[in-house]
Amino acid sequence: MDNQFSKKYFFQLLTLTQVILDYCTVVISVFIGYYLYHFLLQAIDFGTGVQPIKIYVNLAFSAGFLFLVIFERFGLYSRKVGILNIEEMKRILQSLLIGSLILISFSFLIRPISSPQNTPLVMNDGSTLDIQGPLLYSRLILFYSLAVLFVLINIQRHFFNRFLLKFHVRGPGLNRVLIYGAGEIGHQLQRRFFENPRIGLKPIGFIDDDIDKVGRQIIGIRERHETQIPVLGTGLSLGDLVHAWDIHEIIIAIPTASTARIYEIINSCVKAGVRFSFVPNLFDMFIQQVRFEEIEGIPLLRMKGTRRSYIYLATKRLFDIIFSTVVLIFFIPLIPVIALLVKLDSKGPVVFSQKRVGKDGKLFNMHKFRSMHVTAGQYQQSPADHLDPRITKVGRWLRRYNLDELPQFINVIRGEMSVVGPRPEMPFVVDSYTPFQRQRLNLRPGITGLWQISSDRNSAIHENLDYDLYYTENQSFLLDLVVIAKTIGSGLRGKGI
């Protein structure tokens, strides 16, 4: 009974909790904006005068309902999630922009208080405020409130998602799933489930037709910590595993299997009385570039058209130049210090240069502050963690805060790289690309990107091309801002390698 209750009401309760948190965050942001305005007014005399709190109380509660409606319209209360919760962050930004425009327009149209000339208004503390005609909402208070809301709503949702990740391990209401197929696609599914607890699927184990894999532990990543999911058996024991582990769903993750084999697995799922779903055939070839359509009840997979917005490309290039220039100017005092520390810490040059493959396959020299000993091979795989003996003492500190990447902003200004994009690979790796994988070379490589802010940055770039392919198909200026914000947050927390 308890299990049925949790499965039925868990996500309704989850959504209600998120709605309440969002509403409280909006209300609190308005009050913080109000008091921040008056603090600055007293401290530096910046503002148009004292404002009565009464009208902002009404505004706070009204704004709370306004943003709830906008959040709902942008799908922020649905269980549909994207890679690394990037789509959620994009929708938050879009919602805040729309809400800001509505509130600012509202402030020009509505006069919350209108009194005859020279009629004093009694404040909450008993003091009086002289009003000369109608009193308008302060645009400064609105600006402060919206700026605070932008920060608080992202912090609130970040910690709520962190809570869900921890709750995901043992919480009620989650569907227990077995992943049929312990190959690369199965690994990707396991990773997505851990990254996105809102999906509501908890991987219990794997099934694989290769008997040699049975008993192995498949390593996954949850918040940069390794998790191990066992391969419990083969398809022959599917029914027994479903009942023994109380499985709610089987996800078939062997897209290269024959149609006959998929039918056999589906029949086994039906016989065991368990729900099933499957990754469509050819997933590993082009699933990032297809859209689902239906013609008179017949499902079709159709290739997406390549989107090339010249306005976006021009804006992106202008942003790259301005942002890189600002970063280099900001770090000018620190750059000589870093160079001196690198030189004193170990023998070798201060800057490490390496041939990388850029846009359209063109080679260029990518620059970094040297963080490894000169004895390390130039084209070996990058370190997976800070304990790698190839990394110098100063190098560990540089990599932890991503400061070794600073010279790459020169590559950006020169047009060889972008601030956000696919990570540039080494030539011998690109030589082994399939035609499909070479599509990541259609863009300028980036200093940061989806792979760089994921928990999978510990593994090789070419093993996680799904991040780059997702960015290729969904690139936008808003997505770039989200990636930059997450990169800055990661660097401030010292989450680099």
Helices, strands, pairings?
Layout: H1 2-44, H2 53-73, H3 86-109, E1 113-114, E2 119-122, E3 128-131, E4 134-135, H4 139-167, E5 175-180, H5 184-195, E6 201-207, E7 217-222, E8 225-233, H6 238-244, E9 249-252, H7 259-272, E10 275-278, H8 283-286, E11 290-295, E12 298-303, H9 310-330, H10 335-345, E13 351-357, E14 363-369, H11 393-400, H12 408-413, E15 418-420, H13 427-430, E16 446-448, H14 465-474, H15 477-492
Parallel strand pairs: 5-6, 5-9, 6-8, 9-10, 15-16
Antiparallel strand pairs: 1-4, 2-3, 7-8, 11-12, 13-14
Question: Could you walk me through the main structural features you see in this protein, from its secondary elements to its overall organization?
Answer:
The chain is an alpha/beta fold and 497 residues long. It has three domains: 2-167, no CATH class; 175-281, NAD(P)-binding Rossmann-like Domain (Rossmann fold); 310-492, no CATH class. Helices cover 46% and strands 16% of the residues. The chain has 15 helices and 16 strands. It has helices at 2-44, 53-73, 86-109, 139-167, 184-195, 238-244, 259-272, 283-286, 310-330, 335-345, 393-400, 408-413, 427-430, 465-474, 477-492; strands spanning 113-114, 119-122, 128-131, 134-135, 175-180, 201-207, 217-222, 225-233, 249-252, 275-278, 290-295, 298-303, 351-357, 363-369, 418-420, 446-448. The strands form six sheets. A six-stranded mixed beta sheet has the order 7-8-6-5-9-10, with helices on both faces. α6 packs parallel to α7. The longest helix is centred in the first third of the chain and has 43 residues, at 2-44. The chain is globular. Mean pLDDT is 79; it is low at 114-124 and 129-134.
